[in-house]
Backbone:
């Protein structure tokens, strides 16, 4: 893996966020060349297309055909994008409970009734 | 070393009573530290003994890379049932090492991926993500990333003002007390010796209780904390229960809420030996000590025997 490629891989999250931010500032649907220019023109055209396609798969952007090329527009903001990625982490890892301490764990059916009773007690005014 | 080499493999059983009683009878912080230390000691000793058995077993196999003298009768006699025990120890030790490395790898990967998922959000200590699924997680710092609390909008929406503060205080307590280290330690231990699994479950519960207690102190009301836990659990209840362990026993969430509705637990140093909890604590401590002594004894004996058997 070349140094540049490695930097690209590491920065994927940041790049996606940057592309999304650029699309958010666009006056309307824009093409990939506009996004590339907006980001300073340092990225390769294919890189921009790759990122846009990845965002499309995450439903963070939409695209439509305009002439021979696609024009892109943003469908989610940065927090929305982070939520999509976070959900993928949570869905993809069967052992996530083992790593991330969740605020609450799932409730077996019997616990639900018990918990409602306890909640009633907790809602009584404090003495 | 005789039968002592097998003892550390079963001595984790001495920690079962304390894993059962600690969560009700000890302060959550004391219980977490005690159970983690006991689990760590027992797991290391059990793995050391497995490794010793494996050395003796490997030396019997034809074509092994160990010195020829290690398969002498004197070495074999150091281990009872050396034929069976040695052969069985090889796959078991490999399985243990694979399971432990996998656990560490999963832990590292989830933290890395979660950190990447939030990379675009800058460095704020709280990330509220628009998601209709309710969740709240504490992401520990690492590799240039600060501690962060991740909460979904659905989770925030189901709580009222003071309860939200309780939720964030709870997650911050996880981060401030570095609970992920205790959890990782007991998870690796439980993979080193399956008899340590009850300790893993117990520590998962006591760290939550510890964070509940700290957060209740911070928001100044145990009831608010209890309501936050109960409401959040009722909203998140869609997920199917993954374990069959809850048989007629209340699960961890109702027990947490019930504990918060009771007065705060006392921070005592050690329970008296003459109480049930005290007896359980001392049984576990004795088991861990026994385990350490047995494995040290076995390691030393094998070292001496192998040294004598190695031609110089």
Residues:
């Amino acid at each position: 893996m070349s140094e540049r490629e490695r930097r690209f891989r590491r920065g994927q999250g940041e790049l996606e966020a940057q592309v999304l931010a650029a699309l958010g500032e666009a006056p309307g649907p824009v093409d990939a060349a506009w996004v590339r220019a907006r980001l300073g023109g340092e990225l390769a055209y294919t890189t921009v297309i790759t990122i846009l396609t990845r965002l499309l798969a995450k439903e963070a952007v939409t695209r439509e055909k305009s002439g021979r090329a696609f024009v892109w527009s943003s469908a989610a903001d940065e927090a929305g994008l982070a939520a999509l990625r976070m959900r993928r982490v949570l869905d993809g890892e069967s052992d996530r409970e083992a790593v991330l301490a969740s605020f609450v764990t799932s409730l077996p059916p019997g616990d639900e009734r018990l918990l409602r009773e306890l909640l009633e007690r907790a809602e009584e005014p404090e003495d | 070393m005789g039968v002592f080499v097998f003892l550390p493999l079963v001595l984790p059983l001495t920690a079962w009573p304390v894993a059962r009683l600690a969560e009700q009878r000890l302060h959550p912080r004391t219980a977490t530290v005690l159970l983690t230390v006991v689990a760590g000691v027992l797991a290391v000793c059990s793995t050391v003994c497995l490794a010793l058995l494996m050395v003796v077993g490997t030396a019997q196999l034809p074509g092994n890379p160990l010195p020829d003298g290690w398969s002498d009768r004197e070495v074999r006699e150091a281990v009872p049932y050396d034929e069976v025990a040695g052969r069985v120890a090889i796959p078991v030790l490999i399985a243990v090492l694979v399971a432990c490395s996998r656990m560490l790898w999963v832990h590292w990967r989830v933290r890395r991926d979660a950190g990447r998922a939030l990379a675009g959000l800058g460095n704020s200590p709280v990330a509220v993500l628009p998601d209709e699924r309710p969740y709240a997680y504490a992401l520990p710092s690492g590799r240039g990333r600060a501690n962060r609390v991740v909460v979904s909008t659905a989770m925030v929406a189901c709580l009222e003002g003071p309860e939200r503060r309780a939720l964030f205080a709870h997650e911050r307590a996880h981060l401030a007390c570095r609970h992920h280290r205790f959890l990782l330690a007991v998870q690796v231990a439980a993979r080193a010796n399956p008899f340590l699994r009850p300790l893993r479950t117990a520590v998962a519960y006591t760290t939550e209780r510890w964070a509940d207690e700290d957060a209740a102190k911070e928001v100044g009301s145990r009831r608010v904390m209890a309501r936050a836990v109960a409401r959040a659990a009722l909203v998140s209840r869609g997920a199917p229960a993954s374990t069959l362990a809850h048989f007629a026993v209340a699960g961890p969430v109702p027990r947490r809420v019930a504990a918060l509705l009771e007065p705060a637990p006392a921070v005592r140093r050690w329970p008296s030996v003459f109480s049930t909890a005290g007896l359980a604590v001392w049984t576990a401590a004795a088991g861990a000590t026994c385990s350490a002594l047995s494995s040290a004894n076995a390691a030393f004996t094998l070292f001496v025997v192998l040294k004598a058997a190695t031609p110089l």
Remarks:
- Chain A touches chain B through 46 residues (CB under 8 Å).
- The longest strand of chain A covers residues 61-66.
- Residues 3-74 of chain A form a domain with the Arc Repressor Mutant, subunit A fold (CATH 1.10.10.10).
